[in-house]
Amino acid sequence: MANKLTQRIDNIKQSMERLPQEAFQYFVSVTPRDKGNARSKTRLRGTTIVADYPYAQRLNNGWSDQAPDGMTKPTQDFIARRLEQIAKGR
Fold this sequence. Notes:
Elements: H1 2-30, H2 37-40, E1 42-45, E2 48-51, H3 56-60, H4 72-87
Antiparallel strand pairs: 1-2
């Protein structure tokens, strides 16, 4: 029993360690793409996603038809779904 619990805890820990990278990849995937500048200038610094371009706020406010909900809200929803999956062992 203890071995299964330890394994489960290790799996949760590994999944949580991967979550920032998964969230970053999702954020980039929902970032509008015209010339690719916004996607290429988005970085993951530690556990923080940094959109390092002057019009990031406009895109995040739904300025582009490609991302009417911006990038932050969909990424937050993605993280919430992943946390539920991790809690369920997936």
